[in-house]
Amino acid sequence: MAGMTMSQKILAAHAGLSEVKAGQLIEADLDLVLGNDITSPVAIKEMEKFNSKGVFNKDKIALVPDHFVPNKDIKSAENCKCVREFAKRNSITNYFEVGQMGIEHALLPEKGLTVPGDLIIGADSHTCTYGALGAFSTGVGSTDMAAGMATGKAWFKVPSAIKFNLTGKLNEYVSGKDVILHIIGMIGVDGALYKSMEFTGEGVKELSMDDRFTIANMAIEAGGKNGIFPVDEKAIEYLKEHAPGKEYKIFEADPDAEYDEEYTIDLSALKSTVAFPHLPENTHTFDDIDDIKIDQVVIGSCTNGRIDDIRMAAKVLKGRKVAEGIRCIIIPATQAIYMQAMDEGLLKIFIEAGAVVSTPTCGPCLGGYMGILASGERCVSTTNRNFVGRMGATDSEIYLASPAVAAASAVTGKLSQPSDL
Amino acid sequence: MKEARGNVFKFGDNVDTDVIIPARYLNTTDHSELAAHCMEDIDKTFIQKVQKGDIIVANKNFGCGSSREHAPIAIKAAGVSCVIAETFARIFYRNSINIGLPIVECEEAAKEINEGDVVSINFDTGVITDETTGKSYQGQAFPPFMQKIIDSEGLVNYINAK
Ligand code: SF4
């Protein structure tokens, strides 16, 4: 039998099997079950239908109201209340109230809740983010979340994998976002459908943890089941800081693991990349971008609201002004990132530049609130989806880009890269 | 024998969960409220036209995007009896099985069936019949494990019965 991929090994270990193969259906034990203010209320309703009452383990559930909080309207307030009361009733350890919360996929790694070798499901598609730390994590729906909370188990179809061999080193102003947009442009929004995206190669060590989170985060935009990185020194450093004392297990792909496809990506050859409306695969580099006037810039989200991203935005905006008539909205993804940005003087740079800085929230990323687009408006956004109507009116447009590109565009009022300034 | 039969609504590639049920309606979990906005951002008239039992046929990667179970719930609550597509996004696929919305993958059927055709599907055999054109297709049958979840009308009942 052929060797196993990194993802397959984690699944096998959690299913109590010595080996698994692609396509096999398994039931596996979960290390963490996640939900937010949109998906948890549906799951909580489902929970009531189970014969067994209560949750499988109060420490292995994370509830993060982040999408429409601080509550944007009465209905959202009711949903958050439902989650809050459920957390209280079940003594959930990892419930994060406004004031402690952040965008779930930035928050959980920061809190040390996602470690290498873990098997994690979350009722949110970007749960795949934790692969940056060598965990198998994947998005599911609310019924899976309910079953996970009740039983501590979930069913999986063992995925095959695509291998991305990274070489070289990124140039200045080019980041993890450009890497993943480049890949999605190359393989398409269903290029990794049902599959693992396994990143490997000597280029990995050149990527910061925040770059890796960004890359793993958008595996779903290529249809991937999960994205996963090997656990190297940088990852271990991150864990020392964020999950001190927590045990974890490092899995490596077998040398003879089989992959459906293999790609080699030279990081040094990548350029700032932008995904045009209305699909993340519609990628362009500035070689073929004409004058595209914009109305709004959003820098934040579970994709690009981490400290590296906020620093990059500040580096570009420092001493500059947001162009007249452009709304520039900056949203640090967690309270800790917000605080760090404050300590480093970044918030001052933003406010002096004429940007607004918000408390952590998903807000405009999914067209919730805090920056909805009117008919015909265009936004350069560091978020992850540019579907029709995602951020507002159905004829508004979203251009997905890195923090560096978003910040440069805020200064010029049109789609730009830092070298245009 | 379980069957679905109805008129076809046809969609293209990459129908995402944001157009199936826009996020601005995700502040509710009420099924009929969700159904009232089903497909609104891709076809404003869908919800006025759809009849109980009707069938959605689409091309590649149907249901891509977010994990919102509100998407298959909205489709099911709108009265749709089955979705046929070339491929489904994986979270949508899982969610549909878990809530008991029948879905079938069949590339040929997805390509050839036209808007407005009358189509029937036999879930036991996976056979799709376009009654308008008279042509039949073999859809992908579910593995027994998933079939059991569907037969139990969702994951919750399946687990309770175990
Ligand atoms: S920031 Fe956007 S993509 Fe990320 S969890 Fe929130 S809504 Fe989803």
Would you kindly provide a brief summary of this structure?
The complex is a heterodimer of chains A (421) and B (162). Chain A is α/β, with parallel strands linked by helices and 421 residues long. Chain A is built from 13 helices and 18 strands.
Key features of this structure:
heterodimer; A: 421 residues; alpha/beta; Aconitase, domain 3; 2 domains; 5-stranded parallel beta sheet; 13 helices; 18 strands; 30% helix; globular; B: 162 residues; 7-stranded mixed beta sheet; 8 helices; 7 strands; 20% strand; binds iron/sulfur cluster
**Protein structure class of chain A:** alpha/beta
Shape of chain A: globular
Arithmetic mean of pLDDT of chain B: 93
**What portion of the residues of chain B fall into strands of 2 or more residues?**
15-25%
Strand order of the largest sheet of chain B: 4-3-2-1-5-6-7
The greatest inter-chain interface is formed by: A-B, 50 and 41 residues
Distance between the termini of chain A: 56 Å
Strand tally of chain B, please? 7
Largest sheet of chain A: 5 strands, parallel
* CATH hierarchy, class of the largest domain in chain A: Alpha Beta
> What is the radius of gyration of chain A computed over CA atoms, rounded to a whole number of angstroms?
20 Å
Distance between the termini of chain B: 23 Å
CATH architecture type of the largest domain in chain A? 2-Layer Sandwich
Give the strand order, joined by hyphens, for the main sheet of chain A: 4-3-2-5-6
